[in-house]
Amino acid sequence: MSAQTVDGIYLDPIGTAEKAAAQIALRTGVGQHDLALVMGSGWVGAVDALGTPTHEFSAEEIIGFLPPAVEGHSGKIRSYEIAGANGPLRALVFLGRTHLYEGKGIEPVVHSTRTAVKAGCKIVILTNACGGIKTEYKVGQPVLIRDHISLTATSPLIGANFVDLTDLYSKRIRAIVKSEDNSLQEGVYVHWRGPTYETPAEIKMMRTMGADLVGMSTVPEAIAAHALGAEVLGISLVTNAAAGVTGEKLNHEEVIAAGKAAAQRMGALLKGVIPKLF
Ligand code: HPA
């Protein structure tokens, strides 16, 4: 459903997220969700581990959401009830996301996370597919995002909104995830606008800057969620070696295939971690 826009910019992004949250509450009968998951490229299969959703609908039926533009991004919203250590939890799951490279501006990119926080979510889990800059990473390996570098020269925040990002990717939650799987590594994710993959020279630059992972999402959503007070977990699935690392060319099919191959492991990880978060 279209948001009110002026020159493509949402007239009232936070108000639009509040309206979207109210529409989701009406759809699901759930006044407050506890946590949200955004499932990126190749992660959609992982969500099967969460069981059967109580509700599913197309995101574009909700105000501010655009139709999906990429294969591997289904554009559905689901609501789940999940058993937690301290009682049942309600999870809002976004299958797919809008990316900056779609050229629709940054507000549709962060609309799901803003909507999630307005729907009550205290924790936002952002998943993505990424290229491995660190040469020791293997395809199919999940890596926890410890920090990020933004190379897109854009932010979802406007105005004198000097938000601290020191603990953007919650240390508390990373510790919980590592207690579930102590083989997990942490890395620095660099946000690349895309839609081209990077050149080998750009990857070399990113490695020199201290980046381990590269992808085209997550960073604006993390900032938007954090600015509204949610705790953020970011998990990247390494779906390919970044450009120039092996000399192989990159393609989207390989990214999707690596995601499918890892879906069961990623699903089990999420299923194990979620009950421990609250
Ligand atoms: N670069 C940027 N985004 C990506 C990549 C990559 O190598 N793989 C999956 N998403």
From TrEMBL:
What the record says about family reads:
Belongs to the PNP/MTAP phosphorylase family.
GO terms, molecular function: purine-nucleoside phosphorylase activity
In the record, what lineage is assigned to the organism producing the protein?
unclassified sequences, metagenomes, ecological metagenomes
| Domain (Nucleoside phosphorylase): residue spans on this chain | 72-274
Quick one: which pathway? Purine metabolism; purine nucleoside salvage
Please give the organism. Answer: freshwater metagenome
User: Which Gene Ontology cellular-component terms appear in the entry?
Assistant: cytoplasm
Q: EC no.?
A: 2.4.2.1
- Keywords on record: Glycosyltransferase, Transferase
Top EC class, one word: transferase
Example of a GO biological process term: nucleoside metabolic process
State the protein's name. Answer: purine-nucleoside phosphorylase
InterPro entries from the entry?
Nucleoside_phosphorylase_d (IPR000845), Nucleoside_phosphorylase_sf (IPR035994), Purine_phosphorylase (IPR011268)
